[in-house]
Amino acid sequence: MKKKNMLIGAMIGLLSAGMLSGCTMDTSRRAGQGYLGAAAAEEEEAEDPEKTGKEETEEIAEDDKTGLPENGDEEENDSGDTDQDGDDSDGDSDEDSDDGDSDSVPQTGIGRHIVIDPGHQEKANEGEEFIGPGAAEKKQKATVGSKGVVTETDEYELNLEIAFLLQEELEERGFEVILTRDTNDVDISNAERAQIANDIDPTAFIRIHADASSDPETSGIMTICQSEENPYNGYMFNESNRLSTCILDSTVEETGAKNLDVWWTDTMTGINWSTVPTCQIQVGYLSNAEDDTNLQDESYRRKIASGIAKGIDDYVTGNSGDTDDSDDA
Question: Which of 44, 46, 154, 158 is exposed most, by the fewest CB atoms within 10 A?
Fold first, then answer.
């Protein structure tokens, strides 16, 4: 385990130094230009300033932007560096030990653990929690999410179905995957979900959500992460932004959906409490008839799962399908 932490640290060092590039980051994506969805809904009021340009689309209730648990401090407590249970070969043959017995992780590479959080749950929890470590602001702990305008599918159900497909896809690629929930009948707040990821200390924390807007024409896919100025975990911005860019690019390419950019915001509890690279993906708008219909199609859901998995792979390996704008440095 010690060894794995060192490897992950080494990788992060390389990434920051620009030695592993991967997915091109278009700085014009800033705070997600011009699009704001349910995912941002509740935060919208709390976070006008940071929203630059996303005022157009108000959203419809999104639980995910809740705040921190009342016992924020206690919860955070044991997050730190809990061992990342089981990352196979902890022996000491490390990088040279080519093969040794890294049986649990077929594909070698630095960091192959992913935590997936299927957003929302069947019953809302109206209690409040702090939106970040040491924050004064609180938000609702958990909501049920949006509902399909045509299919009337509940977002919490959709998110879990896509999470299962993503788990399958990632495991085929050699990742070890843990879900924050595997049923809809749970009561886990947004801060608690982040804490689950922190305790595992994975390569990435992926939050699955759908969106909704008062404008039925709004459609497409966006990813979300914290800003560089985030007072809770701004130090993770570069990694989270690169992860979000990789996932957005590959998922849009796989599905053909409209690219709504990466949105940087500091209003989401589940992101603010995270101490690992985090990406929240909004897989489509349930308030848009076409998106809603597509999202109920099994083959389309598989494309989403495949796109997210490829983006995670690109992030981990430093590969990118479209690194043409190679003047990023």
Answer: 46
> Residue 7: exposed, middle, or buried by beta-carbon count in 10 A (0-12, 13-18, 19+)?
middle
Q: Let me know if residue 327 belongs to a domain.
A: no
Question: Domain count of the chain?
Answer: 1
The length of the chain in residues reads 329
Residue at 82 is within a domain:
yes
pTM listed for this prediction = 0.71
Per-residue HEC secondary structure of 36-58 comes to CCHHHHHHHHHCCHHHCCCCCCC
328 falls within a domain: no
Tens-place pLDDT, residues 71-87: 333 333 333 333 333 33
| Cβ neighbourhood burial of 286 (10 Å; 0-12, 13-18, 19+) | buried
